[in-house]
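Q: Got a minute? One more chain.
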Amino acid sequence: MIIVDCAIRARLKTGRPIVVGMYGSGFMTRGMLINIERHMKVVNVAAICNRNIERAIRAFLDAGIDPADIREVNSDKDLEQALKAGKRAVTSDPALIARSPAIEVVFEGTGHVEYGARVTAECIANGKDIVSLNVELDATVGPLLRSRAEKAGVIFSGADGDQPGVTMNLVRHIEAMGLRPLVCGNIKGLQDRFRNPTTQAAYARQWNQTPSMVASFADGTKMTAEQVIVANALGLKVSQRGMIGKNYDGHVDGLVDHYDIEELRALGGIVDYVVGAKPSPGIYVLAEARDENQAFFLDLGKLGKGPLYSFYTAWHLTTLEFGISIARVALCRDTVIGTTHPPSADVVAAAKKGLSRGEVIDGIGGYATYGLAENYDTSRRQNLLPMGLAEGCRLKRDIPVDQVLTYEDVESPADSLAHALRREQDRLFPVHGREQAQALSRSAAPAPSACGSHAGSEGREAGAM
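A: Always. Here it is, folded:
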């Protein structure tokens, strides 16, 4: 933050704000837009792509943009002319933002895996830096997309204000001191894997959110995706399927006595979560000293005798911090969170209720499935179905409640880019074993085109509560 605020001041002196195109105009993206327009003049959200044009227009109006300065565009030429005239553009065509030479950074906030896969692949192919709130997509095929982005000379980054980005900020500080992080944790206020859009409807109305988005928080799928992103960024594991997930009503400082440090060391560190701990809704990192000098000064600094030491950030402020991510990427060429290394963890789908043969699985935060964290090599060897690919799959057999799904249990959508990208990622990062070799041979198929569908542009917004 000390560096990026200086970079922001320097850019403001040029009179040229960072020109941004935004995908989605729901709860989180709208909140970010309003904050940027009022308080972060270094960023200019010049265009919004959303399937429902009226919602995109409404987002600009809520941010204080004059209706006369908003134009609906349907071609590259229309968008170019609108931006040259200093207007704000709205469109339902995701390719227009991806192709526009005037747009420096795109902000992807839909939370929909298939739509997000298409726009992200298109933006990378067109040389656009991307800041993404789409943790569902990132946890499914993020390492592959970052490999593509690296080859294209662009950045595909998670965001400040979302818990993975906040965790990474703290980890970078801890590692810069020479300490070794062994637990990266998420603090939850509620965890009930059987919550669904019906149970969460009243809460969603209270906070002007969609029931499925709120359900994805409550059933743990969103948090699991966030922790898998952290695990993949740092090469961490889970100690058991689903993580440990203690109910704990104390301060996270007390968690230093709740883990087996030898197990943590043997695994190379883990991701985890707690329910009910303070400070909520922040994050915690437990680290160890590497020598007696560090241990002495950690004790002097009132962090205790070790061997684990507690560090935490008490908040993640979502929409108020997202603009910082755009500035970091555009001005500092700094990735908030993300890696091109082989993934270490995965989000796999489990049955939220008894599922019947022939049933088509609904989306994340729906009625059919919830996500569990599993180590990537285990997920691959057991041919488990990634949660991000479950939507639209048709069941071949009955599945009892809480059972994890495999690829053999479902018929996958034939034209899904997200499925094709995951097959590509699995080939890029092979896991050796007879079962996986068989699964890979069955799953080989060509990839659909990147922006062939507009479905889902109003999907759930990313961001953890």
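A: The radius of gyration is 22 Å.
Q: Perfect, thanks.
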